[in-house]
Amino acid sequence: MYDVAIIGAGPAGATLARLLGAELRVLLVDRRSLEWPPLSDDLEKCCGGLLAPAAQKELARQGLGVPGAVASGPQLFAVRCEDGDSGLRRLYSRSYVNVDRDLLDRWLVSLVGPQVDRGFGWTARSVEQGDDGAMVRFDTPGGGSVSALARMVVGADGAASIVRRGCFPHVPSAAGYVAVQGQFESANTDSHYGAFFDSSITDHYGWTIPKSGTTLVGAAFPRRQGVPDLYEAFVRRVRRSGFALGTELGRSSSLVSRPTTPAQLFLGSDRVALLGEAAGLISPSSAEGISYALRSAASLAEALVSGTNGALYRYRMLAAPLVLEVCVKMVKARLIGSPVMRAAVLRSGAGALIQDSTPGYRTMLGEILTP
Hints:
Blueprint: E1 2-7, H1 11-20, E2 26-30, E3 50-51, H2 53-61, E4 76-83, E5 88-98, H3 101-110, E6 117-120, E7 123-129, E8 134-140, E9 144-155, H4 162-167, E10 175-186, E11 193-197, E12 206-211, E13 214-222, H5 227-240, E14 245-258, E15 268-269, E16 272-274, H6 290-303, H7 311-336, H8 339-348, H9 359-366
Parallel strand pairs: 1-2, 1-9, 2-6, 4-11, 9-16
Antiparallel strand pairs: 3-5, 4-5, 7-8, 8-9, 10-13, 10-14, 11-12, 12-13, 15-16
């Protein structure tokens, strides 16, 4: 029997497996192979690959620095916000570490100690809780199957979490969006993160991110028919904004959560814990989730220092600040989702890279718009 079976080896799952070390018997499972260095093409994560300040801070707290092989150029120090409803545009100061998201995941997995068992290429099919533990059943490559019994199962499997849906069907889930992202040849020389708002296309937002001679163009859309057409409309919107986009080199899509009420933030119960986006811990304003993945994993690892008994209670206490932070960002999301409020902030120039006699006030207001 395992002490902990972790479903999902992204930043949350890999971090938890690494931090638990040799103290507990751990199984780490992911449907991707995640070798380091990469030896195969796996399913690509639809993610812009930017480490926001909160993620940078958590990596530093854990004593980690991003290796050069994982970084992608250029490094970014500004966000350009464009509002299609008002026609306004502003530039704000904000620093990000630009990385290759697939390589980031592989690097974090490479830090996991050899004492952790791995089930890569496995897909979780079901989780059944019993008196002796939780039984997880997996499909394996080649059409096989395998089961694992664990004292605690951890769902770190993202917005479409099989663990959450299977174990807690009664718990309300965050609103589901579809993120679509294309990679384009690009001659753009602007080194900033673009954030686009246009209520005629989506009630969320879109983004542009330069990546080593190419540009990622993505947006999150409510789950409904017509998403491909909406994405094409967004690409046309980006081109009209002055981006010289060339040939599209590839496109990916994935589900992304957007929590709107505190009830949708759920850390688990009984023998099952949830991390990161599976728990609803993701920014509803920017869809930034890496920092929450890293921090929720660190909280659960600390809760498990004393063993699996009572770990869920300790995890809820340790992760309470993250839940509160997401609740605050729900308010922010409603503000930037209002065309009237968004235009008012942009017209004020709050926090923009311009001279002002009250910079503290302007910076505070500018935080409303920067993802």
